[in-house]
C-alpha cells in the first residue's frame, strides 16, 4: 500500500486554444514526500497545480488521487487543499474563522472544530492572533494563517502555489526550514510550485523541472544538480559553463571531446552514450574548477586564460576567466584562508583545471 | 439555472432598451393620425395582401421647416460652448484636487460629488432665484451700487449656459481627476530633472497624458447637454432653441408622435459620433 | 509642492460656484416673504405648508415607492450584468455596449422610446395595462441598472478570484461561495449602486413625464410643474429637506466605505 504512489498524473495536457499550457505530463507523487515543481513563469507549473486542485480541467489525460480518478470531482469535493500565492484569506473573517472555514464546510462537530483550530494555530504559532482580521497581520503572519487554513482539513495532498513568494529573503529562508519541519511532522504529501531554484533545492525531497508545459527532468536535488540531463536544466539549476564540441572518441573507459572553445580536447574518464562525430556540450560547475598561478596537479584537463573580472563575495570569490579562444569561464573558489582572495588579481594569467569526472556531457 | 441567470440582464435590456428603439424607428416612418395611438400602422394585412407604407414625410418635414435645423445647430452650439467652459473650470479644479494632500483630496472629491447626489431639478431651480430680475444676484449688485438696472439674465441663453455648466461640472471633474491622479509623480519629477519649467512640464507631460480624461469629461457633458430639456425649460427664454425642447413640444403639445420620433432618431444620429468617441476612450482606459 | 495662488483661487471660486446656489436655496427657505428672494424675517411657515400639501406628500410617497422598487431591480440587474461582464460568458461585448448605452442617451429619447414601447405592447398583448407606477419603475430600473452595473463592475474587477477558489477548495459549493465570499466582498458596491439608482430615480423628471400616467405624478414632476410657474418658497423648503437628507446619506456612505477600505490596504 505504501509503495503505490499517492498521486498519478498520466499524460495530462491542458490547452488554451492553440497554446499548450501543460503538454503531456506524466508524474507520480509518492506518499509523504515534498515534491517541488520548478520552472520559470509561464512554464505551466501553476496550471498543473490548478488542475490537481480542480480549478482547471485537463484537456486530455488522467489524474488519480489514491486510486480515485478525479475527472468528475469538483474542487470542493476533492481531498486536496491549496495554499494560494496571494494567500486568498477571506478579508471579512477573523483568523479563527478563516482556519475553521473548511472544517465547517465539512460539517464537523463544533467541539472538534475548536480543537482542530487551536491545534493548527499552535502549529503555526498564531494562537495569539485568532481574533485578528487578515488586514491586521503582517505578510509573514498571513502566510502562516493561509498554511494553517489549508492544513486544517488534513488533506491527503497539500498544493502550495509559491508559498513563500511574497516574503522577503531573510524571512523566506527561515520559513523554508519551518515549512519542511511541519511537512515532516504531519506526514502530509506536499506539492510546492516555485520559480526559485534555491527554494526548490532546500525544500524538495524531489524536484520536477518544467519548461514550456513539459516536465524535463525529475530527481532529487543532488541528481538534478550533479547530473542534469539537458543544457536547459544544467543552466537553470545553479550556474554552469558550457563548452560546445564534437565527440571524437567514445570507449567503454573513456571519451574525448574536441572543443575549440576549450582550446583542445576534453578528456572524460567514462563512456559517453553517443555516437562519434556528434556535437555535444560539456557542462562544468564553477566550483568544480580549480584556479591557480601554476598548472594544477592531478586533473585530466587544463586551460589557460586571463582573469577578466573578480568578485569577492565573502565566503567565496568568483572569477570570470577569458580563455585564449575567447570563451569566458566562470570559476568559484571558497575563501578558506584570509588573504587568499588577493592572491590572484584582475588581468593575471591563470591556469584552470578540472577532472573529467566532474563534468557532464550533454547532447546539444 | 446557472446558465439562465446571466441571460436576465440581456432579456431586460433587449425588451426595455433595444426594442423601444426599434419601435421609435418604426413610428418615425408612420403617418400621423388623430387617433390613439396617434399614428397609422406601418404595415397592414388585409384580404391576403400585405401593405407596407413607409412614410418619409416626417423626415422631409424636418428639412422643410427651418425650426428643426436651427434647433439642432443651436443645441450643438450651446452644448459645445458649455462643454468648453466646463472644461476650463473643471480642469484646474481636478488638477488641484489630484495634487492636494491625501487626506484633503477625499474631502474635496466628496464636495464635488455631493451636489450630484442632491436633486438636479432643485439645483437648476436654485438659479431662478439667483438670476431673476429681483433675484439674489441683481439685489447684491444693486446694493453694491455696481449697476442701477437689474441685469436680464434669466430666460436668456446665458442662463442656459450657466445651468449646463453648473449641473454638469462634476461629470467633467471626475474623469479628469481619475486620469490626473493616476499620473505618476515620477514623470513630473523626471521632466523637472531634465530641465523643464513647471509650465513646460504641464504642457508637455501632464496635459498630453490627461487627454483621455479631457475627452471623456467633454463627451459626458456634451452628449446629455445636446438633448437637455429641463435646463432650457426652466432657465431659457422663448428664443432659446434646443432640440430636447422641440421634441418635448412635438410630443406633449402637438401630440405628433411620428415627428417627435423622427426628431429623436436624427438626434441619435447627431450624437452617434461623440458617443462612439466616448466608447473608444472608455474601452481604451479599461485596457490600460 | 504648494499650488500656485491662481490655482487656489480657481478652486475656491469653483466650489463657491457649486455651493452658492444650494446655500441660497436653504437660506431663503426660512424667509417669511412669499417673494423668495427678498428677506423679510425668519420663519418656518413654508415647511408647515409643505408638509400639509397633499399633492406634494402624495407625489413624494409615489416617488419613494418607485425609487425603492427600481433601485432594487437595478441592483439585481447590475449585479448579474457585472458578473457576465467580469466573469466572461457569451455576449460579453454585446452586453457591455448595451448596458452602458442608457448612460449616454439623452433622457428625452429614453423616455419617448419607452413610452412608444409601452403603447405598442398595450395594443399587441394588453400589457402593461395603462401607464403608472409599474411603467415608471421599469423605466427607472433600466437606466438605474446602467449606473449600477458600472459601480458593481468596478468593484468586481478588483476582487481576487483566488479568494473564491480558496472557499471552493475548502469545501464550499458554488452557491455557498457566492454567499460566503463574493457577496460580502461586493456589499459596499451593492449599497452604493442601490443608493445611486435610488437617487437617480428620485431625481428624474423627464423620463417619468413620458411614462407616467394620470395619478402617478412623481415628486419631481410636481416640483417641475410648480417651478415652471416661478419660484415657490415651498419648493425651497422641500429642497432644504432633500439636501439635508442626501448630505446625511452621503456622509454615512462615505464613512462606511472609508471603514471598509481599510481592510483592503
TrEMBL record, chain A:
GO CC annotations, alphabetized: ATP-binding cassette (ABC) transporter complex
Enzyme class: translocase
Superkingdom to which the source organism belongs: Bacteria
InterPro entries xrefs: AAA+_ATPase, ABC_SmlMolc_Importer, ABC_transporter-like_ATP-bd, ABC_transporter-like_CS, Mo/tungstate-bd_C_term_dom, P-loop_NTPase, PotA-like, Transp-assoc_OB_typ2
Signal peptide: none
GO BP terms in the entry: putrescine transport
Pfam families, per database record: ABC_tran (PF00005), TOBE_2 (PF08402)
Keyword annotations: ATP-binding, Cell inner membrane, Cell membrane, Hydrolase, Membrane, Nucleotide-binding, Translocase, Transport
The enzyme's E.C. designation: 7.6.2.11
Task of the protein: Part of the ABC transporter complex PotABCD involved in spermidine/putrescine import. Responsible for energy coupling to the transport system.
Assigned protein family: Belongs to the ABC transporter superfamily. Spermidine/putrescine importer (TC 3.A.1.11.1) family.
Annotated protein name in UniProt: Spermidine/putrescine import ATP-binding protein PotA
TrEMBL record, chain B:
Protein name: Putrescine transport system permease protein PotH
Entry-linked PANTHER family: INNER MEMBRANE ABC TRANSPORTER PERMEASE PROTEIN YDCU-RELATED-RELATED (PTHR42929), PUTRESCINE TRANSPORT SYSTEM PERMEASE PROTEIN POTH (PTHR42929:SF3)
Residue ranges of every copy of the ABC transmembrane type-1 domain listed in the record: 72-278
Transmembrane segments: 76-95, 107-128, 158-178, 199-223, 257-278
PROSITE patterns: ABC_TM1
Keyword Nucleus listed: no
Topological type in the membrane: Multi-pass membrane protein
Family the UniProt entry places it in: Belongs to the binding-protein-dependent transport system permease family. CysTW subfamily.
From TrEMBL, chain C:
UniProt keywords, alphabetically: Cell membrane, Membrane, Transmembrane, Transmembrane helix, Transport
Domain ABC transmembrane type-1: 60-253
Membrane spanning stretches: 7-30, 56-86, 93-120, 132-152, 177-199, 237-258
UniProt-listed GO biological process terms: transmembrane transport
Pfam family, one: BPD_transp_1
Gene3D superfamilies the UniProt entry points to: MetI-like
One cellular component term from this protein's GO annotations in UniProt: plasma membrane
Record's bilayer topology term: Multi-pass membrane protein
Cell compartments where the protein resides: Cell membrane
CDD domains with a match to the protein in the record: TM_PBP2 (cd06261)
The keyword Cell inner membrane is assigned to this record: no
Main location: membrane
Signal peptide extent: none
Domain of life: Bacteria
InterPro entries, per the entry: Bact_Polyamine_Transport, MetI-like, MetI-like_sf
UniProt record similarity statement: Belongs to the binding-protein-dependent transport system permease family. CysTW subfamily.
The protein's name: Inner membrane ABC transporter permease protein YdcV
